[in-house]
Amino acid sequence: xxxxxxxxxxxxxxxxxxxxxxxxxxxxxxxxxxxxxxxxxxxxxxxxxxxxxxxxxxxxxxxxxxxxxxxxxxxxxxxxxxxxxxxxxxxxxxxxxxxxxxxxxxxxxxxxxxxxxxxxxxxxxxxxxxxxxxxxxxxxxxxxxxxxxxxxxxxxxxxxxxxxxxxxxxxxxxxxxxxxxxxxxxxxxxxxxxxxxxxxxxxxxxxxxxxxxxxxxxxxxxxxxxxxxxxxxxxxxxxxxxxxxxxxxxxxxxxxxxxxxxxxxxxxxxxxxxxxxxxxxxxxxxxxxxxxxxxxxxxxxxxxxxxxxxxxxxxxxxxxxxxxxxxxxxxxxxxxxxxxxxxxxxxxxxxxxxxxxxxxxxxxxxxxxxxxxxxxxxxxxxxxxxxxxxxxxxxxxxxxxxxxxxxxxxxxxxxxxxxxxxxxxxxxxxxxxxxxxxxxxxxxxxx
Length: 447
Prior knowledge:
Elements (H helix, E strand, L loop, with lengths): L1 H5 L8 H24 L1 H9 L6 H29 L3 H18 L8 H24 L1 H4 L5 H32 L4 H19 L1 H6 L18 H15 L1 H30 L5 H29 L1 H21 L3 H29 L5 H29 L4 H20 L3 H15 L3 H7 L1
Helix pairs in contact: 2-6, 2-8, 2-9, 2-12, 3-4, 4-5, 4-6, 4-16, 5-6, 5-9, 6-16, 8-9, 8-13, 8-15, 12-13, 12-15, 12-16, 12-17, 13-14, 13-15, 14-15, 14-17, 16-17
């Protein structure tokens, strides 16, 4: 096993470091599945906001605020991490913040709307920063021809972490219901268990994950007032030197907008449209995570053989089928099929998208380019749910039509993906080494 792992890793990278990195995905998946998808989203709408007519909009608006904060601060933070070899510091400070604010969410209940909003904004902000930091380590761990496989390992292990957090949540909820306890008692315990799993799973990375970047103190101004200028320079650089990466970012915004609808509104749709209980919803999300883990783990090697672009195209076609099936579903069985298909597509899409970013990102600016990837996903996370909510509001609460409109995101993403050239993107990446004075031999020596 160790020998097989060494063939997909860069020189100097041991298998245990890769698995410690994968455990970071294991850790943060619990936050996504429990807080954003399966439990706290429905708790926020039904308990904290007391099922008010504006409750769903309040949930999506709260998440959008956190994503807006990420979009504003991430370019400076990732640029600072590259300039000062501080990716690991950025990673663990954001992990710590997410753990603390997730635990604080356990103190929210009926009427605590603004406290809940504050803690959700802070926890999701920290989670988003950690996700970007985790992804930025991928190219320094995996060989170029094995990015899909290693990325798939990370996502697959991540979904297992989500399953563990959901399993604990399901046990706590069902045990509480058997004793006549409501969500106000069981959900806080679910949140505390999620925070505990998050913190424990990050421990190996504290000791095993290495910071391989070289500090470039003159590469970034410490003046926060320069954020806008930095953004302008980064996007100007994309237009001039990295046109294929720019197209990839636009594609990511489109399909991630659709995926974010599934992540943040799955529990709401299941309860409001399909009539699922909280226990049924958690079981549904468990099935989705199992399918997603299978998709990420099994499709990783296929990505490297088939090509990340073709793999992503197949996954996007699967998303089209998923959204159309969910729109047409009138029975629980059909909706379960759509949910499991969504899980398979989710694991494949996220793994292939992250691998393509790693393949196009220059070695001397990994944090910044993965920061742009995270910027795109945060923008999508703000656009998707708000568009869904807008369609629902405009149609008098027709969530089925809102789900149907989500398919447009995947269709547009497919069209954009068709015009992305893998060969041109690789060439632009290689040329950037000469432009910025970073040669392959130095990168290998650092790795």
